[in-house]
Amino acid sequence: MRALAFSFPAMLLAAGVAFAQPKDTLIVDLPGDVATMDPHLQWDTESYTVYRNIFDNLVTRDVSGKIVPQVATGWRYTDNTTIVFDLRSDILFQDGSKLTAEDVAFSVRRIINPALKSPQLSQFDQIISADVTGPAQVTLRTKTPYPALMAQLVKLSIVPKAYVEKIGDQKFNQEPIGSGPYKLRTWQRGVQSVLDSNDSYWRVKPPFAHVTFRAVPDIPTRIADLRTGRADITRGLTPDDAEALKGDKSLQVMPVATERVAYMFINALAGPTKDKRVRQAIAMGVDRDTIITALQQGYAKPVNVVLTPANFGYIADIPGWKFDPVAARALVKQAGAEGATVELLTSPAYDRRLNEAIQQMLGEIGLKVTITMTDQPSFLRRRQGSPEEAGALSQGRWSCACQDADGVIFPLFRSGSIWSKFNNPAFDAEVDAARTILDATQRLVHYRRAFEILREEVPGVGLFQDNAIYLARKELKWIPTANEAFFVTEMTWQK
Amino acid sequence: MRRISLGTALIFAGLLAFIVAAIGADVFASNDPLRQSLLLRLRPPGTATATAYFPLGTDDLGRDLLARILYGARASLMVAALSVSVSLLVGVTLGLMAGWFGGWVSIVAMRAVDTMLSIPAILLAVLTVAVLGPGFFNLVLVLGLTRWPRYTRVAYAQTLQVAALPYVRAAEMAGCGPGRILLRHVLPNIAGPLMVVATSEFGLMILFEASLSFLGLGIQPPYPSWGSIMSAGRQYVVRAWWLTAFPGACLFGVVLCVNLFGDWLRDRVDPRSQGR
Amino acid sequence: MPELKSRLLQALIAIFGVLTIVFFIMRLSGDPTLLLVPDGATAEQIAALRHVLGFDRPLLVQYGAYLLDLARLDLGQSLVQHAPVAGIVAERIPYTMALAGGALLVALGVGLPAGLAMAVWRGTWLERALAGFVLAGQSLPTFWSGLLMILFFGVYLGWLPTSGSDDLASLVMPSVALGAITMSSFARMTRIAVLDELSRDYVAAGRARGLSYGAVILRHVLRNAAIPVVTIAALEVGNLLAGAVIVETVFAWPGIGQLAIQSIASRDFLVVQTIVLFVSMVYISMNLLADLAYGVIDPRIRRDR
Amino acid sequence: MIALSVRDLSLAIGRTNIVDAISFDVAPGEVLALVGESGCGKSVTAQAIMRLLPAAIRQTGGEITLGATSLSNLPARAMRDLRGRQIAMIFQEPQSALDPLATVGNQIAEALRQPLAKVRAEVRQMLVEVGISDPDRRIDQHPFELSGGMCQRVMIAIALIARPAVLIADEPTTALDVTIQAQILALLRRLAAERQTAVVLITHDMGVVADIADRVAVMYAGRVAETGPTAAVFATPAHPYTALLLASIPRLSDVPKSALAVIDGQVPQPADYGAGCRFAGRCPRADRRCVAETPALRPVADGRLVACFHPVGG
Could you write out the three-class secondary structure of A450-489? Predict the structure, then answer.
């Protein structure tokens, strides 16, 4: 077979070579292909996983989740809307050119320029300017005081200005050059991307000579690949898979609590759930513990609010609604909603079993839940549309990748936001205040009040803090992190 | 009347079992196909508890697999029967008209057939589901409205032949209107070949329904379809083989019977093709 | 030649119909803006992106612009991958071609001999066994047989790779899964065609002049039987490309079928439109080719042209 | 000398006899006509001689001898070698008996087991002999480019090119125009005489028999009813069936006094063959004995044999 493979089209050759010395190469099975290699364009998990290893970012998070310097050495606010970054001057791009303050300023300007059509624009559009203010210094200005700025900047990769301007945006997407520990060798769309180590990397010596990211959409196939040694690590396992694979001697299951919160959206502006009592009844009718033990196999931690402990602004002592189907049923009856039809909107992106379990649980408290499944675009169109067409319920798994309450409850429940089907001026005032002050303690006070309102009004119910579950060969050493980052430099072969 | 062979009897028995299972799903299923018991998830065939017996095991929400397969048969049967009816109606009407009137009617109809046939059916179905949204009736519509061209082709060719027959010409001379001639004289004469096409399409529709449900675009949860049971079970192939094995085997068996029946029917309709 | 010209014209009409249907169905299904923005974008930000992408223009204007681009042979840019659509699709075509080629090999390699054997050994146990095999191939749901194969040959026996597209071994299972149904149609068609030919006088005449049965089949029957089989073969290539959608999804084969499903889900309009356009062009040109192939096989038609 | 001898040949489908102990001989250069209505078993007899019976039909008895070779127990391979070389056959519909996709020359060459290039001259000469004009062009043409008559000439060329001892012609002119029929028959007659080929001509047409056959064997329902020199049989048919058959031929000399003579009733189906004479049901002369007993072939005048208890004029 191997001999025959060489008569096969040249497209298949690269991989054959990569397999020659497996220990040199880390093979990663991802659920999908990279959409873009340009870090300023797509920001889906697959693309981020790959290009984040090619680029350095201004700042990053350490294993504990703390924001730490990377290209920047430090930063300070000169006023509420101005922040100055000091930069390293010993970083080289993979083409040998030096990473300068110009490159950093260019990167910020590039991503906030509407002409780039970057889907990430909304995460950075609070920034109004980026200027070089010293040989190794850049100053950013924001429209208003913006506490989430640092969290957003964690996602800003630094691209080489001269190179991008020379070859153009489109070509840059095909042949990116960064300053990160790995450089792109080949990218076969839909198949795999192969990265080679950047041996002159400034921070550490990259642990593997090559890294191959393969697109394998099917979970059973990814698991089979791990078992047969075709891949070293994969992600996106379900708790059921994790349980089943626990006993496998050659593999290790690595769950990590993430900043992703599983919650149930409840429409407070239309339909039977417009009545607060129905929403409260739903909160009491959902058996969170059974969901966690039976469906999540324990790979989840219950939360009382729509936020996880991994986020800033999480208030641990807000009481949750206790599971009480009898009281819930009574409340539904009292609201005159017994037998009312409640539409649960969903898409293939969400856990089907959870939907069906909730359908049955709410059936027991007297609500008739109908599940409407559409594909993701149609789901989003309805979910983000007017309250009347947004459905009464939908399941969500929310992560703002900024580990801040502002990225969660503001878009979800602030009136006027496309996701919000809730209108409460008191709540709006609290979250508005919390996003324009920089002082952490003060912000927490606002979030406590905001969560108290949410608890009473129930425009959504927090279910659990989701786990990301990785599966790796036993010999790979790595500790996954809450922000689902995938830094190859943090991995090594175990002796 | 030829004697019916053992093989033929088996085909009929298989089809009958399928139809009876589909119609009588509520009678045969001892458990509610929608009733979950989250603490009895993924139990193997033959599991018995104090209150219930699961001959084929349970699915990932602890529902009785046998009951779900029986109700899944109903979904298969209904989707296939209805979508074949829809496409038969559309396709035959177009084909009859194209064959009878000829001229621009046939040009338009046959170009439409070319167009439809050159779009991969499953892609067209996926696209249409994306617009209409999934669900039982949309599924029937999607399958029905994308699968008519084969009937049009057959009806067209057959109508051309039959229309040239003397008695049809005679009926025309006698002043029968086209509607009457097509329905009373042409249609009965071309019904045989159309039935053969419809049977093979029926088998295909069962497969299509399962494929779309497998892709998550067909019958919606919690209602069972063989495709969606397998789609869910696919995740558990290694741990819970019964979730893919049983519905898969049912699907295979039923489609096999339908295809065998189609062959038998073709021998009947067109004795020249004996045993083909 | 006028015949060929009118066939080409018909083909053009069909292709135009295809791209129109697909364009409007895709647009009716909503645009990709919502998928492109990150969670938490505001309504204004979404509207701004929609404007930048041009999806706020009237449908007919968009359609006109699309046709205009197409007339200039510009297939456009993918919104999701920020790269030219032509390149994105072209990169995947070799994979689908390899898969379809493998499947065709399976279908021809198994289907033709099976069909021939069924006709020649008509009424024997061999025919019945092969008929069962062929019907089974036709009745197998590909997603199921694919799953079973992965489980058995990939995981249990470990003979074939469970995923990937990097060598011939990984092409085996998808090809078999995809080729099964086509194999059945080939076998049936071959059987009918050969039976038809076997009943003709020239078979008896050939034997009467001293040819063996095998020689008559090789020298005369096969060539005559090839005519109807070539037609179906051409149509089947179109069906193979359509079937590839499911098989590529099950086996994670990075061809245009998988790309199509992903692009429909991400509303990457131009990619979907280009794929459908490509597939229907292949289908239509296959039909044309089959017509031309007749001419090569059948001297009667060669003369007419 | 006898080129082909058939003795007591019996054929059956399953348990049903369709040909019942028929016998005849043909001498070199002689034309024997096997005549009868369709379904009387004459075509399967021809197939049995070629050993090309359909799978469903078995030979249940009798012996076929070609020259000195008994064909009945010959190995298949040896039989195949004889076909085309020692014994050849031409068919009813020349156009369907030729492969539409192969050239005329190639198909003729097959009878010689040689590639056309090697035997081109010979093939061309044969085309000339069967009366095809412009043989150099025709040799590379396909059957569809030729008329029906020309196709039959090609079939004759295929059959005779290897100079077989016996030619079986199964209704060779039925599908052709009347004018062409005469030409083809004349051609057959001439070539058979020139090459001393024994011809078994199978036909239902008494006119054809009269034109070409030296001797005739009249078959009815799987049996030979009467056999003898053509002239004698035509002059004084002995079997009532022969007589009626001859009476049904329209002749120029006949004054149409009344409707043509018609034989009442139908040929019985093989499954319905009973004991006794199979023509008894339709025979104006039949009596009780005819129904109960099978008449054997017995000699009458002029070297003729007839299977009838009550022969005409006897």
Answer: HHHHHHHHCCEEEEEEEEEEEEEECCEECCCCCCCCCCHH
In this structure, are residues D183 and D149 in contact, taking their beta carbons and an 8 Å threshold? yes
Q: Does a cis peptide bond (omega within 30 degrees of 0) precede residue B222?
A: yes
Strands A67-69 and A251-266: unpaired
Given a cut of 70, the residues of chain A with pLDDT beneath it are 1-22, 495
ipTM of the complex: 0.76
Cβ burial, residue A461 (10 Å; 0-12/13-18/19+): buried
Residue C200: list chain D partners with CB under 8 A: 96
Write down the H helix ranges in B215-276. Answer: 226-233, 242-269
Nearest to A365 by CA among A345, A390, A342: A342
User: DSSP code of A338?
Assistant: T
Cα–Cα distance for residue pair A214/A207, rounded to 1 Å: 19
Q: Which residues on D lie below 8 Å from C197 (Cβ)? A: none
Sign for the CA dihedral angle at B104, B107, B113, B117 comes to negative
Identity (one letter) of the amino acid at D18?
I
Is the Cβ pair C21, B260 closer than 8 Å? no
User: Which one-letter DSSP state was computed for residue C298?
Assistant: -
Choose among B117, B210, B244: nearest Cβ to C147. Answer: B244
DSSP-based three-state secondary structure for C34:
helix
| Beta strands A492-493; B47-48: pairing state | unpaired
User: Measured between CB atoms, does C136 come within 8 Å of chain B?
Assistant: yes
Question: How many residues would you count in chain D?
Answer: 314
CB atoms near residue A311 (< 10 Å): 26
Q: Which of A356, A373, A377 sits opposite B134 (nearest CB)?
A: A373
C135 interfaces chain B, CB cutoff of 8 Å: yes
Please check whether residue D155 touches C, CB under 8 A.
yes
pLDDT tens digits, B27-65: 888 888 888 888 888 888 988 888 888 889 898 888 999
CATH superfamily of B78-273: MetI-like (1.10.3720.10)
Give the residue carrying structure tokens 């041009």: C54
* Chains B, D in contact, 3 or more Cβ pairs below 8 Å: no
Verify whether the Cβ–Cβ distance C123 to D92 is below 8 Å: no
Where exactly are the structural domains of chain B?
78-273
| A262 touches A396 (CB < 8 A) | yes
Q: Does A221 touch chain B (CB under 8 A)?
A: no
Residues of chain B neighbouring A290 (CB-CB closer than 8 A): 38-39
Q: How many whole angstroms separate alpha carbon C266 and alpha carbon C263?
A: 5
- Dihedrals phi, psi of A13, to nearest 5 degrees: -70, -45
Asked if C166's CB is within 8 angstroms of A15's CB, the reply is: yes
Q: Is D152 on the interface with C (CB under 8 A)?
A: no
Beta carbons within 8 Å of C267's beta carbon, 6+ residues apart? A377, C26, C29, C30, C31, C32, C35
Identify all chain A residues contacting B36, using CB atoms and an 8 Å cutoff. 356-357, 360
Q: Measured between alpha carbons, how far is C120 from D150 in angstroms, rounded to an integer?
A: 32
| Short-list A365, A256, A378, CA closest to A309 | A256
Residue C13 CB-density burial (10 A; 0-12 exposed, 13-18 middle, 19+ buried): middle
Are the C-beta atoms of residues B58 and B42 closer than 8 Å to each other? yes
In angstroms, the CA A92 to CA B252 distance is: 61
| pLDDT single digits (tens) D4-39 | 999 999 999 888 888 888 889 999 999 999 998 877
- Please state the pTM of the whole predicted model: 0.79
Does D have 3 or more CB contacts under 8 Å with A?
A: no
H helices of chain B, where?
6-23, 25-28, 65-101, 103-118, 121-132, 136-146, 149-163, 166-173, 178-180, 187-214, 226-233, 242-269
Q: What is the pLDDT of residues A219-248, one digit of tens each?
A: 888 888 898 888 999 999 989 889 888 888
